[in-house]
Amino acid sequence: MTALALSRIHFPITTLGPGKRVGVWFQGCSIRCPGCVSMDTWAAGKGMTTVADVLDTLAPVVSSADGLTISGGEPFEQSEALAALLRGWHRLGGGDVLVYSGRALEDLARALSELDGLIDAVIADPFLRAVPQTVALRGSDNQRLVTLTTRGVELFSAYEAPLPVGERALDVLFDDNTGDAFLVGIPRPGDMVKLAAALKAAGHSAAATEDVR
Ligand code: SF4
After folding, report:
1. Class of domain 3-161
2. Are the C-beta atoms of 192 and 38 separated by less than 8 Å?
3. 69 SS3 class
4. Where does the pLDDT of residue 165 fall: very low under 50, low under 70, confident under 90, or very high at 90 and above?
């Protein structure tokens, strides 16, 4: 039974890859990019579950999902769980796979070769707060989108273009059990801070992870 530290799962998400996707956020990241908007995923050892349990959760929605996006946290810090999850996803008949990593692309070469055929596209390199953000799917323009399969080329090449102004979007998702709301997607610099301030002014409890770009 392969252990996995999990932050959350959402379906459907529409802002991190093509179509209606399953989003899986790994818990734990030691990279600690200044300005990261996912600081809640940094702590290791939280959200312990198993890959089998995650696949049981995903199974009912696989046929409705166009693809899977794995983010975090740093998925490659749980390489065994990542590989098991990807194999399970494909056993279930799941669609394309996009994986985010804060590691440099060069440092992922060995891991990606071991996962050959299981990932269609990867977005690599750390988030850099001082670098502009104009390209789709990336938090900062230094991050590289690499297609790894024929399907990846077909589905993700279009994302190399700059994101047109007015086409930025975030998914808003609610946790029915806790009442929490999550925003999914790539916010513009300062968006999270502005949103938290607006919600607080309206009398809601709101917290934003650090984003002082
Ligand atoms: S941006 Fe990604 S890699 Fe960087 S600290 Fe945040 S979760 Fe980790």
Report:
1. alpha beta
2. no
3. strand
4. low
**DSSP readout, 26-48?**
ES--S---TT-S-GGG-STT-SE
66: nearest Cα among 15, 19, 17: 19
CA of 193 to the centre of ligand 1 (A): 18
The pLDDT assigned to 196 comes to: 77
The span from the CA of 121 to the CA of 147, in Å, is 4
Which range (2-11, 44-53, 88-97, 186-195) has the least confidence? 186-195
Q: Please give the number of the atom of ligand 1 that sits closest to the Cα of 102.
A: 3
Q: Which amino acid is at 47?
A: G
Residue nearest to atom 4 of ligand 1 (CA): 33
Q: 179 pLDDT exceeds 70?
A: yes
| Residue boundaries of the structural domains of the chain | 3-161
